[in-house]
Structure formats: C-alpha cells, structure tokens
C-alpha cells in the first residue's frame, strides 16, 4: 500500500528495521551516544544552533508544552484551520487566557493583523501552524516572525511544523522562531510516537519565569537531562534508533534536494488538479509543499475513490473535520517520489472516468 495520506506515511523497510536493534539501558553510555548523535543531526533539519528535545509523545504534546512552558497567562492563537484551532483549545484547557486571531480557512495568516493584535495588547506567546494539514495552506511564518520581532520582541513565537518540517525549509534561527516542532510520522517518514521540539535560549529563559509548567513536558527539566544526553523519563528508544538511521538517509539525500523534491511533487499535484478543472483549496503563493487539499466540487464519493485506489495499492485522505467529503487531500511527503505521484494521478483519472457524466 502506498500512502498519500498526511501521516502516518510510508516508512522505508530499512528504517523500520533500524527499530529492531536490541534495547539498551537508557542510562548507559552506549544509549546516550545514540541519543546525542540523533539530536545533534536533527538540528540541521531545524536550521538551528540551539537544541532539539526528543519526546516520547506526538506533536499535540508539544502544542501543550508550548503554552505550559512559555505563558503564565496570555496567548495569542493564530487560527486558519483545524490544527490552529486545536492549539487554541489546548491553551484554553490548560487554563491560559488565550485569544483567537481568526482568518478564513481559505486565507493565510496575515502578518499585519498579528502585528496589530500585538500593538493592542501584550501577549507572552504567539502560536501559529506553519502547514495547516486540514486546508493545505502554508502560512507565511517568516513574515509573521518578522512582525512579532518588530512589534513585541519579548513575545515567544511558537511554530507547529508537524506536517512540514523535513519537507519544507524552515529556518528557525534565521527567522527568529523560539519553538519549532514536528511529529515523527510526517515528513521525517518514521513511525508515530516521537515528537521533536527545538527551543531557543531566550525561550528557555522565559520558561524560568513561568510557574506550573508541569513535569513531563517541562523544557527546563528536559534541558537538564539533555546536557547529559538523556531524558527525564524513559525515551522511545526504538524510534530514536530509527531516527538516528533515517536522519543519515535524509542528510544523504541532501536537505535542499529533499525540499526540491517535495515542491516538485506539490506543483505537479496542484497543476494536475487545475488542469482537471478541480479547485485547490489554498490560494496560489500559500499552497503547501507537503499536502494538497482539493475542493470536492464534483461531489465524488471519497470512500468509493479510496476503495478504487486501494485495489491499486494506494490510499489518499478524506478532508479533515468540517472539510470531510467537501475536500479530499493528497499528501506528497516523506519518502514519496514523483513517480509515485504519477501512478496516483493516473489512477485518479481512471476513477474519474468511471463516474457517469451528469
Ligand atoms: N499539527 C498539525 C499541523 C498536524 O497536521 C497534526 C496532525 O496531523 C497535529 C498538529 C497533531 O499531531 P499528532 O497527531 O502528532 O499529535
């Protein structure tokens, strides 16, 4: 089965195999060396000189960590899709005074409006999703970061790159991001269960002024252990073995080549959709490099489409949440190759040919 769903994605057999190495005591030099090596290599994918924490968690855990570590009270949540909305809910349910800065889901987050909101009131944290997996929108995080830095330099900027890091270039340090994170099961093409979170020095300083950070996701506790190449709790060892191995593969492909492959596949899918008379949900200039959301204007039966594709060893994703059946999504992330995309598009055309013309 070839997966064109936005995670969990296909994991190459040799990466799966890397998980089967025998366990080690996690407080041992042998394990610590592997942990250190994987976390150091990961910094290259984040374009950071700071640090990458490896949590036995998924991305949502780091959404929670963000608001717990950096906000005593005030959070500004940029929302233009389901995952921005989730992050807002995470802030509220953690007792923060979160305010939503909402945009229509068909539009990107507007850096000017973020700047205006920060001029009106101080916020300790701004949250933004780089790649809205629900809408296939790539938000202009670099411009938002510039706006935050100009208007409110002390605000901690937290960026969810769950469905883009490793498939799109996000330069944490150069752009001035304080927290950047991803989940293992998307563009890094690993099994689910690991969250990677890069944190800046100034963000760690801010965390010192925040009370009730909790225990498991406390970045200061993580940092204390990271300095000894370990974690406070038992690490997801098999996944870290696989991460260590997969990062070598990723760096051997070359990050720029990897990003170029993702954008080539995205362009192909988006141009194909338009040539078919279908409509890409996100506007030009903000279309995701890793997942394309297509409006289901012709009312295709998405379950029937997937059944058709499954017979051919492929699978795409329905729309997410409120966009179920109104849209469908084609992921082009991880180890998917342009030739896989060609096979998928051919099969989609074959499916379309089976629909009686109304
Ligand atoms: N943020 C984005 C943009 C996502 O796409 C997802 C999952 O698809 C999440 C957060 C949640 O990630 P996880 O399922 O790893 O907790």
List keywords for this structure.
14 strands; Aspartate Aminotransferase, domain 1; about 45% helix; binds pyridoxal-5'-phosphate; 13 helices; alpha/beta; Aspartate Aminotransferase, domain 2; 7-stranded mixed beta sheet; about 350 residues
SSE inventory with pairings:
Layout: E1 2-4, H1 13-18, H2 29-46, E2 51-56, H3 59-70, E3 74-79, H4 82-93, E4 97-102, H5 111-120, E5 125-129, E6 131-132, E7 137-138, H6 141-151, E8 156-160, H7 172-175, E9 179-183, E10 194-199, H8 201-207, H9 219-226, H10 237-253, H11 255-275, E11 279-280, E12 291-295, H12 302-311, E13 314-318, E14 327-331, H13 338-354
Parallel strand pairs: 1-13, 3-4, 3-5, 5-8, 8-9
Antiparallel strand pairs: 2-10, 6-7, 9-10, 11-12, 12-14, 13-14
Helix pairs in contact: 2-10, 5-6, 10-11
Give a quick account of the main beta sheet: strands, pairing sense, barrel closure. 7 strands, mixed
Instruction: Just give the CATH class of the largest domain.
Output: Alpha Beta
What radius of gyration results from the CA coordinates? 20 Å
Tell me the series of helices and strands, N- to C-terminal: EHHEHEHEHEEEHEHEEHHHHEEHEEH
Give the spatial strand order of the biggest sheet: 2-10-9-8-5-3-4
Distance between the termini: 32 Å
The backbone outline, from C-alpha atoms, is globular
Low-confidence stretches: none
Q: Quickly give the structural class.
A: alpha/beta
| Number of continuous helical runs | 13
Strand content: 15-25%
| CATH evolutionary superfamily of the largest domain | Type I PLP-dependent aspartate aminotransferase-like (Major domain)
Helix content: 40-55%
């Amino acid at each position: 089965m070839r997966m064109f769903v936005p995670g969990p994605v296909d994991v190459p057999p040799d990466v799966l195999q890397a998980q089967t190495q025998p366990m080690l005591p996690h407080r041992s030099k042998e394990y610590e060396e592997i942990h250190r090596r994987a976390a150091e290599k990961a910094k290259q994918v984040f374009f950071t000189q700071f640090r990458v924490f490896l949590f036995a968690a998924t991305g949502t855990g780091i959404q929670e960590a963000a608001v717990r570590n950096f906000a005593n009270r005030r959070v500004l949540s940029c929302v233009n899709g389901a995952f921005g909305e989730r992050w807002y809910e995470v802030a509220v349910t953690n007792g923060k005074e979160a305010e939503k800065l909402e945009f229509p889901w068909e539009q990107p987050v507007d850096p000017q409006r973020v700047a205006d909101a920060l001029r009106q009131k101080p916020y300790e944290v701004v949250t933004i999703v780089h790649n809205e997996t629900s809408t296939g929108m790539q938000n202009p995080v670099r411009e938002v970061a510039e706006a935050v830095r100009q208007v409110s330099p002390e605000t901690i900027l937290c960026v969810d790159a769950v469905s883009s890091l490793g498939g799109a270039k996000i330069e944490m340090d150069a752009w001035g991001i304080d927290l950047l994170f991803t989940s293992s099961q998307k563009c890094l093409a690993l099994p689910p269960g690991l969250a990677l979170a890069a944190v800046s020095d100034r963000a760690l300083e801010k965390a010192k002024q925040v009370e009730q950070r909790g225990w498991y996701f406390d970045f200061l506790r993580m940092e204390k252990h990271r300095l000894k190449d370990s974690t406070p709790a038992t690490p997801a060892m098999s996944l870290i073995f696989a991460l260590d191995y997969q990062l070598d593969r990723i760096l051997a492909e070359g990050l720029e080549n990897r990003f170029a492959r993702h954008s080539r596949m995205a362009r192909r899918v988006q141009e194909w959709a338009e040539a078919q008379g279908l409509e890409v949900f996100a506007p030009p200039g903000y279309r995701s490099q890793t997942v394309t959301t297509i409006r289901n204007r012709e009312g295709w039966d998405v379950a029937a489409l997937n059944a058709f594709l499954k017979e051919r060893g492929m699978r795409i994703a329905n729309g997410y949440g409120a966009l179920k059946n109104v849209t469908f999504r084609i992921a082009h992330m991880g180890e998917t190759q342009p030739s896989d995309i060609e096979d998928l598009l051919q099969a989609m055309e074959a499916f379309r040919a089976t629909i009686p013309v109304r």
